[in-house]
């Protein structure tokens, strides 16, 4: 029994062990295998502005696979063939590292799909800015050569940055410094696009070096330098300016208003010489004077005269500058000049050529009067300054200039014929005065038929009756006399005279003789000043004692000088 029990125990034990082995070796349930699997590279980095390749591989239930990429944040992806995984995108510009998630979704022919992602870090890459220094250029000197005392302008505005963060402001900071030579930057601003300095006045000359450091929007810096040569004071040329190019008429004054200076006191005094460098032969009044003039020669077609101003300092340094003067032929003008041939110093008329430089381009330098003064104004008759008059007899025929009796005067410039006042107490007596009366073009009111202060030998002393009387008499054989306009009457004023009468009395006697200033002469024009109830109460007059014009009441007394068109 004992043996049997022992055998039974062994069998039970073996069976128990056998049961444990059966439980431990039972199969483990595995997760289902994905229908589509994707393999992507590890996370990686790429530089800004570079072309980034997107790669990967996949397996599905079919060999037909479709690939679709996306980026977060979103960017454009180049993926022409969606049956392949290969795609690309351009890394954006950035100033700090930026992470992008690239996701690939793959779909097989049965519609099974899977997605996987990779992180791509875009790294900033800064191209350093390029500093550019441009120096100003002085005439008569080599590039980067500066005369003593001259302006030195170093300009960095052309500096640039090829990968600018802000294309409108590629450079954020400019910083200048002087690295060689005598320091001339004291008290000057060294920040900014432009550095402005002054070359020292000293002997000997020397070289100076300046550097410019520029900073871009990403903090990148780059430096450039320039070396200049400062000329010794003893070798620095005087400055010279001959003047602007001008156009003048034959016979007018050509103003030669040169300018010259030197920064070196030891180079004083300066000497000057004007030269005529053209085929024309204008006469220079004083060729060794800085400011002078020449008379424009007579030409038949537009021609050019060139004048050169030479300046030499006491050390023998010489420099020159030129100007061109276009001389044009005289044009037949229907306008009189003023009669002024004197210059003004601001308070009075004086006959001083020095004022040509101090107060250039005055009336005395241009026009018929200046041409006549220089002896180049042709005339059909005679007359003071630029005026050109011819005396006419009772029948309107021309008289010689020395005639002592004449009734009318023809203005050969304007073509107008003027009445001449008479010494006898008949028609045209110089002392007669009239009120203004005009039934047409009168500003709304005729005027006065017989002003209280008027004085004449007609029944009614007014402008209209006087015009009728002169036309009825056929003065100088003409029957179309009229009151002059304001401009017509002013055209015979001689403003070059300093005492009354301000008219050429050799042709227009008795204009103010024995009369108290102002000596008003009527025009045909009513005045807009002094309107009452939309009616012009006044008319324009010209004073031949002072040259002034004004308006007076139509009932006032004034003198008359009639005019007619020429023939």
Automatic annotation (TrEMBL):
Indicate the segments forming the Lcl C-terminal domain, all copies: 408-564
Top-level taxon in the UniProt lineage? Bacteria
Keyword presence, Signal: yes
| Cellular component terms per the entry's GO annotation | cytoplasmic vesicle; membrane
Entry-linked InterPro entries: Ig-like_fold, KIAA0319-like, Lcl_C
Q: Which UniProt keywords apply?
A: Signal
User: Which range is the signal sequence, renumbered to this chain?
Assistant: 1-18
Q: Does the keyword Signal apply?
A: yes
PROSITE patterns from the entry?
A: PROKAR_LIPOPROTEIN
Which protein are we looking at? Answer: DUF1566 domain-containing protein
Organism encoding this protein: Neptunicella marina
């Amino acid at each position: 029994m004992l043996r049997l029990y022992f055998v039974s125990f062994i069998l039970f034990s073996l069976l128990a062990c056998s049961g444990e082995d059966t439980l431990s070796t039972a199969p483990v349930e595995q997760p289902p295998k994905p229908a589509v699997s994707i393999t992507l590279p590890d996370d990686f980095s790429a530089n800004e502005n570079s072309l980034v390749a997107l790669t990967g591989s996949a397996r599905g239930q079919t060999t037909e696979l479709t690939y679709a990429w996306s980026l977060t944040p979103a960017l454009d992806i180049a993926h022409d063939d969606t049956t392949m995984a290969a795609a690309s995108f351009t890394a954006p510009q950035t100033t700090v590292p930026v992470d992008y998630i690239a996701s690939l979704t793959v779909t097989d022919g049965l519609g099974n799909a899977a997605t996987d992602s990779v992180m791509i870090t875009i790294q900033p890459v800064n191209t350093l800015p390029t500093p550019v220094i441009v120096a100003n250029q002085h005439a008569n000197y080599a590039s980067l050569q500066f005369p003593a005392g001259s302006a030195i302008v170093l300009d960095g505005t052309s500096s640039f940055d090829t990968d600018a963060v802000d294309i409108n402001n590629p450079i954020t900071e400019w910083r200048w410094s002087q690295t060689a030579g005598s320091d001339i930057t004291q008290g000057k601003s060294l920040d900014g696009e432009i550095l402005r300095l002054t070359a020292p006045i000293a002997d000997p000359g020397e070289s100076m070096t300046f550097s410019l450091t520029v900073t871009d929007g990403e903090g990148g810096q780059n430096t450039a330098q320039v070396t200049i040569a400062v000329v010794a004071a003893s070798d620095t040329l005087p400055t010279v300016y001959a003047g602007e190019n001008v156009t003048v008429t034959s016979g007018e004054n050509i103003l030669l208003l040169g300018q010259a200076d030197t920064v070196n006191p030891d180079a004083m005094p300066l000497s000057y010489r004007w030269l005529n460098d053209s085929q024309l032969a204008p006469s220079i009044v004083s060729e060794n004077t800085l400011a002078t003039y020449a008379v424009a020669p007579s030409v038949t077609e537009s021609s050019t005269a060139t004048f050169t101003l030479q300046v030499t300092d006491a050390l023998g340094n010489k420099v020159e500058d030129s100007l061109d003067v276009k001389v044009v032929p005289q044009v037949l003008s229907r306008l009189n000049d003023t009669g002024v041939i004197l210059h003004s110093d601001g308070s009075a008329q004086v006959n001083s050529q020095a004022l040509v430089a101090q107060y250039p381009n005055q009336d005395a330098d241009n026009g018929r009067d200046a041409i006549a003064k220089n002896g180049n104004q042709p005339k059909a008759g005679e007359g003071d300054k630029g005026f050109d008059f011819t005396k006419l007899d009772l029948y309107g025929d021309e008289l010689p200039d020395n005639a002592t009796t004449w009734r009318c005067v023809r203005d050969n410039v304007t073509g107008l014929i003027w009445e001449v006042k008479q010494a006898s107490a008949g028609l045209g007596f110089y002392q007669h005065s009239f009120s203004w009366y005009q039934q047409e073009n009168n500003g709304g009111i005729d005027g006065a038929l017989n002003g209280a202060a008027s004085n004449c030998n007609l029944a009614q002393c007014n402008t209209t009756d006087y015009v009728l009387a002169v036309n009825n008499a056929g003065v100088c054989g003409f029957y179309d006399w009229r009151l002059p306009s304001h401009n017509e009457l002013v055209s015979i004023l001689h403003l070059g005279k300093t005492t009354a009468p301000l008219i050429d009395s050799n042709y227009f006697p008795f204009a103010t003789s024995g009369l108290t200033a102002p000596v008003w002469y009527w025009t045909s024009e009513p005045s807009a000043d002094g309107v009452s109830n939309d009616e012009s109460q006044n008319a324009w007059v010209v004073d031949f004692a002072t040259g002034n014009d004004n308006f007076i009441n139509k009932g006032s007394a004034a003198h008359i000088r009639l005019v007619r068109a020429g023939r």
